[in-house]
């Protein structure tokens, strides 16, 4: 083999080892899950600009359940009729409230069973529909639960399914 051929072979072998090492390191890094899309999704709880949502938690204790708190910042009282939950577009049950929430106060929805099994450690989205009656003094001063004063708010809760509450 000529000196040019030997130099070419050494060049190819050296860079082949370097390329192989690069592939091995890339596979090792990707297998850790650090670049998993769920790593870039942030947890969120949003329902309405004037209805605060906090403390959202999706957890699994044999059944998948959800906890969250809504705060009334609308400027007037509301009477929450019900909260309906959806997971992956399918109904995941509802919670009948029939509870008045005074302006500035909050109400907790806790341990509501979603009726579906969601895998631990995954990011999941739960859509929320809150049906309520306005108790604004200029509209419904008696805060009656008449369908004329009924409204609907739609929001979402995105969170990682944890093992315990």
SSE string, helices as H and strands as E: HEEEEEEEE
For this structure, the CATH topology of the largest domain is Immunoglobulin-like
Strand content is: over 45%
The poorly predicted ranges are: none
Provide mean pLDDT, rounded: 89
Total helices: the number is 1
Tally of extended strands? Answer: 8
Please give the alpha-carbon distance between the first and last residues: 71 Å
Write down the Rg: 27 Å
Give the helix/strand class.
Answer: alpha+beta
Q: What kind of sheet is the major sheet? A: 8 strands, mixed
- At the first level of CATH, what is the class of the largest domain? Mainly Beta
Q: What percentage of residues falls in helices of 4 or more residues?
A: 10-25%
What is the total number of structural domains? 2
Shape: elongated
Describe this structure as you would to a colleague.
The protein has 165 residues and is of the alpha+beta class. The protein folds into two domains: 3-35; 43-162, Immunoglobulin-like (Sandwich). The protein is built from one helix and eight strands; from the N terminus they run αββββββββ. Strands 1, 2, 3, 4, 5, 6, 7 and 8 form an eight-stranded mixed sheet that branches. The chain is elongated.
């Amino acid at each position: 083999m000529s000196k040019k051929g030997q130099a070419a072979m050494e060049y190819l072998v050296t860079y082949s080892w370097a390329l192989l090492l690069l592939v091995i390191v890339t596979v090792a890094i990707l297998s850790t899950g650090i670049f998993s899309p769920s790593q870039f999704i942030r947890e969120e709880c949003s329902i309405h600009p004037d209805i605060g949502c906090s403390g959202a938690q999706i957890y699994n204790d044999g059944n998948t359940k959800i906890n969250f708190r809504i705060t009334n910042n609308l400027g007037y009282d509301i009477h929450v009729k019900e909260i309906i939950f959806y997971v992956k577009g399918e109904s995941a049950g509802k919670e009948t409230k029939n509870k008045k929430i005074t302006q500035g106060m909050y109400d907790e929805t806790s341990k509501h069973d979603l009726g579906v099994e969601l895998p631990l450690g995954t990011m999941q989205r739960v859509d929320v529909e809150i049906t309520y009656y306005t108790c604004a003094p200029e509209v419904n001063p008696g805060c009656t639960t008449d369908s004329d004063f009924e409204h609907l708010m739609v929001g979402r809760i995105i969170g990682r399914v944890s093992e315990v509450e």
